[in-house]
Amino acid sequence: MEKTIFEKIGGEFERQRDYLIPCLALSPEKEQPIGLFGRRHLDYLKQYRKVTYTNLLTSGRLNTYLADIDRQAQERFERLIEGMKQAQGITERLKEENALEWVQYLNNIRACAREVVNEEIIYT
């Protein structure tokens, strides 16, 4: 019997009852921690970009991709916060003088930065 294309490239079959099932396995992907932004992007991919999600999952690159997105988003988030703090004059002195006002400004800045990161990186 002539070999199939799968067998010619080194593939093997496993017999299960009357069927020959190809032995397929993905190369193990290095597990990397995924933070909040990576999980949000994963949810976005699953809901709105199903083909991209499936391609990344079946190629074994999903975890690496999400870890990279998470790292980029976190760096952008931190840069935005520092830039907005400087632009609005939020300093440690304000923190010492009026902690509640400082928290209010900082929470507003964090919310704005989160929206920018979501728009630029997570939901695209």
Quick take:
With 124 residues, the protein is mainly alpha-helical.
Task: Outline the structure in words.
By secondary structure, this protein is mainly α. The protein has one domain. It is 68% helix and 6% strand. The protein contains six helices and two strands. A two-stranded antiparallel ribbon has the order 1-2. Helix 2 crosses helix 3 and helix 2 crosses helix 4. The longest helix is centred in the middle third of the chain and has 27 residues. The chain is rod-shaped and about 85 Å long. The mean pLDDT is 90.
Layout of strands and helices, then pairs:
Elements: H1 5-8, E1 13-16, E2 19-22, H2 36-48, H3 50-59, H4 62-88, H5 92-97, H6 99-122
Antiparallel strand pairs: 1-2
Helix pairs in contact: 2-3, 2-4, 4-6
How much of the sequence lies in strands comes to: 5-15%
Number of helices, counting only DSSP H or I runs of 4 residues or more? 6
Unreliably modeled segments: none
**Number of strand elements:** 2
Please tell me what the overall shape is. rod-shaped
Portion of residues in helices? 55-70%
User: What is the H-and-E element order?
Assistant: HEEHHHHH
Mean pLDDT: 90
The computed structural class is: mainly alpha
Radius of gyration: 24 Å
Enumerate the strands of the largest sheet in spatial order, edge to edge or round the barrel. Answer: 1-2
